[in-house]
Structures are given as structure tokens and as C-alpha cells.
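ESCALATION

Customer reports they have been waiting on this structure for their group meeting. Please prioritize. Original submission:
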Amino acid sequence: MLKFIYARLFVFSLAHIERLILTLTKMSQVPAHVIAVKDYFDRHLPDLRGVRNTDAHLEDRSRGLGASGKPLNLKGVDNQYVYAPGALSLQNLYGNRYGSTMADGSHGEVEVSYKTLIFAACVVQTIIDAFQWEGEPRTWP
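Update from on-call: job pushed to the front of the queue and completed.
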């Protein structure tokens, strides 16, 4: 059971990073490069928001409801582990991929791996580097 908890926390942590980046892109005087980094992040983790939202609204998805309480048009699961047309999938691990049925009825997955962790860390560092910092560099708190 712990691996499911850790996978879910990993996805939620990635979603927090995504929300922070999204918030930055809406602020004035943010370097244009931050918007490009946001697009890059979204392209590499396209199902992140949908999978995270399913976990956050599990009571709706488990009743077959999508966004705004509309019935799901289930498209099923089709990956290297499962072929289940029209199936509802909630909080599953397929190897190192955490997946669920998203609000649009499609199945989404997020890779839970060291590779994804390094990707997220590089995105955060790239955003930090996009800003012009003033003052002396500091390596202590």
C-alpha cells in the first residue's frame, strides 16, 4: 500500500510545481522564458492535471462523473498492462506509471520515476535562473 501512497504524493507534488509555475506566468514582470518553461513542463507531463484532479475528486469519478457533475464518457484503459475499453480506472499503478480516468473520460498516466523527479528539478532551476537576482550570492540560509 505504501507504494500507492508514495506515487500519489509524487503526483500531487508535481501538480504543486505546475500550479506554482502557472501562477508565475500570470504575474507581471516575469521573464518571458518562464512561459516557455511552463509549456515545456505541460508537454512532458500532459496528463498530470487530469490525474491529480481525479484524485482530488475521487468521489465524483467513482460515481462516473466528470467536471461539473457531467456523466463520464468512459474511453477505457489501453496500455502495456491492461486493455479494458469503457472501463473506469482509479488510482492504479502500471509499473512505474500512476494512472486514473480523467474528467474527460480518457485514461491518463504520470510516470513516477527518478527521471521525472530530475525533470521537475531542472524545470524549477531553469525558472530560478530566468530571474535577474540582485545582491551578493549566498550559499547559506
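Sent to customer with the following note: The mean pLDDT is 92.
Escalation resolved.
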